[in-house]
Amino acid sequence: MPTQRRIERHQLPYYLKVFNRITDKPMGYIGNVSVNGLMLISQLPMLVGARFEMCLKIPGQCCLHVIEFSGTCQWSREDVTPGSFDSGFALVAPPADYVEMVDALRLYFSFHPLAASA
Questions:
Q1: What are 1-19's pLDDT values in tens digits?
Q2: Mind listing the domains of the chain with CATH numbers?
Q3: Are 73 and 86 in contact (CB under 8 A)?
Q4: Which residues neighbour 98 within 8 Å (Cβ) at sequence distance 6 or greater?
Q5: 60-98 tens-digit pLDDT
């Protein structure tokens, strides 16, 4: 029986669209991220064991920022939402801009309590 990983992840459904880097067709949306992987929410199941060439297109102030990366599908299963599938990907040598995006998302979505004043 496979061991379940316990990596802190941040939930991002329907915000960041993932594209196939080769065909430029949408694959789905990021469900959550970690530095080494992501969960993709899609309309079709993904082929477990297959390597996918993916990219994110993030709008910026002056231009579109494209983050390209490769990932191997570790698992794929039907979501509780009819017509949706969740698939887990391990990234192959995540590029620096992907790691920076995960760090920025972690900072943005984290709760930072204010320091108590005396």
A1: 455 655 555 555 446 899 9
A2: 10-108 (2.40.10.220)
A3: no
A4: 56, 67, 69, 91
A5: 778 888 999 999 999 999 988 889 999 999 999 999 998
